Amino acid sequence: MVSQTITLNPVILTIAPNGARKSKHDHPMLPITPADLAHEAKVCQTEGAAMIHLHVRDEDHNHTLDVGRYRDAIDAIRGAVGEAIVIQATTEAVGMYNAQQQMDMVIALQPEAVSLSIRELVPEGGEEHARSFFAELMALKIMPQLIISSVEELRRYELLVRDDIIPFDNPFLLFVLGRYTTGQQSHPRDLLPFIITLKPECPWAVCAFGPLELAATSSALALGGHVRVGFENNMLLKDGESASQNSDLVRQIRGVSEAIGRPVATARDVRAMFLGTKTETAI
Prior knowledge:
Blueprint: E1 13-15, H1 34-47, E2 51-54, E3 56-57, E4 63-64, H2 67-81, E5 86-90, H3 99-109, E6 113-117, H4 118-121, H5 127-140, E7 143-148, H6 151-162, E8 172-177, H7 192-197, E9 204-208, H8 213-222, E10 226-229, H9 246-259, H10 267-274
Parallel strand pairs: 1-2, 1-10, 2-5, 5-6, 6-7, 7-8, 8-9, 9-10
Antiparallel strand pairs: 3-4
């Protein structure tokens, strides 16, 4: 019998370690400070995370888009892992920031990567302003990930691409499952409407809220997508027990990736895919 080797595309594992709303009351190991985030980045990168979705907090541990606090956290993470992880800043508004403030933060910070909500940054009537912002991101070579929370948003995204408001040649989409439903629960079937609508050549990832995070993200892996896991979305392991730290969730989904034959991407792979560079210094 002749054996055949089939290589599937590497899966990008992103860790979302804290989010904007949770606190130490939700989990004592929730990382808040730059030192906490640096430690989390290091252990999660060791388990296979190629990217960290970064939220920072103010002195009262509340969500902030403060550029100085972002720089402190980024410096701490780079000190811990060098270039071995892609650092993705968030622009999440949390009802506190308007589109202009979100855009201003990104241009001032100039992060390597950034997550952007279509719903928040491109409100009806704000298309031309968004066009200028996205063009500046391209000029600065900042890697965007566009957050899509419903099929209606996905269809609007496709219209924005058609009209050259979103100009990226290789945009990375993130489908959010369960975030805007009662109780912030998700189910693997929530992914299907996105997949049916999506153009096949577009790279995409999934994050899923609630205890079925692993089932939903495993479905995404089997369908060729990438995944984001972490305390921002879920703190439970597949057996219902609380994860001791974020790296437990990375290890769990990495096991699924290995079981279905998909290798785990490195930060080098992510940069090659979206930024056209292969520069990486691992620690």
